[in-house]
Amino acid sequence: MHKTQDLIAEIKRLEAELLLEIQKQEETFFYKTKGRKIVFDEATVTKQKSEATGMIAYLLDVPILNFLTFPIIWFGIFPAMFMDLVVSLYHSICFRVYGIPLVKRSDYIVIDRHSLRYLNVIERLNCIYCGYFNGLMAYVQEISARTEQYWCPIKHARKLTSMHKHYHKFVAFGDYENYQNKLVKIRKDFEGLQAKPEKKKHKPT
Description:
The chain is mostly helical. It contains 9 helices and 2 strands; from the N terminus they run ααββααααααα.
């Protein structure tokens, strides 16, 4: 167990180091982040615009088979938005009932690549879609992971190709002796996550 905890701590340290390294790119590519807004200096914007591929040239360069797949790709926006609605509704209501900390949506769904002026309109639109769809998958996975921790914190018998960050807390498959004893503790073990918002108390006038 100690080795597992040490490995998890090392992974978190490396993730923090990677994030710091990525943030250093702000200086390399002359941009600053102000809240959700990405700001480039004027000279960089001018240079970026000069590097953008024209619409006609871009469309002529797209392989015909790729072009024909566009409707299939973009049709996915409808089930994605429906899933977003259903999962967000479940998350907003049920997590408050269960006492599970809420998932901050903006930590997962990040849309900012449309600020890059060396992308043409189609490329920027594609980047918006990719940012939304992949962010949505991460957002939904975190909600489902916290749900699994609450309702079924048991590890699988079969080997997984990937696992979410809460999986290491789960009870071993077949460990019936510890399951009931640890279940209550595991359900409350959301240390380090954003606490669910508290209702504001109105001061007496």
